[in-house]
Structures are given as C-alpha cells and as structure tokens.
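Recap from last week: sequence in, structure out.
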Amino acid sequence: MNSSNNISQKRYSKLIVFDMDSTLIDAESIDELARAAGVVDKVSVVTEKAMNGDIDYHQALKDRVKLLKGLKLETAQEAMRAMQLMPGAEELVKHVKSLGFKTAMLSGGFTLSTDRVGKLLGIDYVYSNILAVKDGHLTGEVSGPMTDNCSKEVVFEKIAKEMGFETTDCIVVGDGANDICLFKRAGCAIAFNPKPILRQYADEVVTQKDLRAIIPIIDSLDLD
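Predicted structure tokens:
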C-alpha cells in the first residue's frame, strides 16, 4: 500500500464514492453477461483494453453490449445473481456508515446487477446503465446516466453538490481507467488492485484483494 502525506493534511467531507466491478464485487458484470451469451472471449478483450485506457470507454461499452444481443433476460439475471461481493465489501461499507458517511456507487455496469449490489450493501446513491430488453431478450442496446467517457465525474459533482460538499473534499475508490475522472476530482483517491494507468492518479494504492484494507486509510483521515 502506497501512502501520500498530502491526504493527512486536510479535512474530508463524509461522502465516499465506489466503482462496482472489480471493486465492490469480485467480477466484471459485462464479462459475466458475455460468458452467459457465449461471447466472453470477444468481450473480455474489449473490457481489458477499456480498463487499461487503450480504447474509448463509450465506444467500448456500445461494442460490448452489442455482442449480448439475443441473450435471454432470465439467463442474464441468473448470471448477475451469481456474482459475489468483493471480500471485505460489507465490512468496509458498514464501517464508513458507522462514521456517518453517505455512500455512492457509480458504475458503467447495469441495473441488472447494481440494483442487487446496492441493496445488499445499503448504498445511498446508485447510478448505472440500462440494458434494453424486447420479448424477453437483450436487444444489444444500452442507455443511462453512465454511458459517456466522464459520466462518473458529472454524477460525482451532482451528488457532492446536493450534499453541500466539494468533490475535492470527498473520497473515491476504484480500479480502472474509467475512474480517472473521479480520481482527478476527489480529495482522497484510493486505487484498489488497480490497472497500471490508474496508479499515477491515486493517493493510496491497495494491492490486496480485501476491501477491509481500506478501513485504516479512512480511519487515518481528518473527517468533518
């Protein structure tokens, strides 16, 4: 775990923003849907490139969802229910809530998974995308508030403003290239088992696959 002295020299507002895939859950939801649709190899290649920042996030999302066309909704739902929480997710969220934090989950994933994960963890704000369905099958189209390259940044600012906070006083946790815009705006950016491209934007880097490792970081901060 890397540490920055800068984060110990300021006071933080009680809003923490999480990514979902490979952060609060131990899976990439788009890859699990692709596995169920029999196109996991094609989709995983695009996912890896997108998370490493090698291709445009918005286009990568559209390209991957298009490959899911024809997948039965029931099968998709089963795949989403099978995904496990990241070790330590429940403990971390419970801990920050005990400190008075509001929690947000901003995901490029889909309501098929975020609704369940948000409810399991008791997340206060959940934003994700919607997979179009027709006649009980996915159409290969996606819409929602998290489809653009820096959607996370826009929503982060919206939530912080609603709470009367500056984003620069808040905490974010993520793992991939699409979290860079969050990391640039946050006061304390925690990279959890991150892709190499994200490390340079992080104040803290956690390399063990257990979200409980973030608790000491939170406890070290000066909180409002």
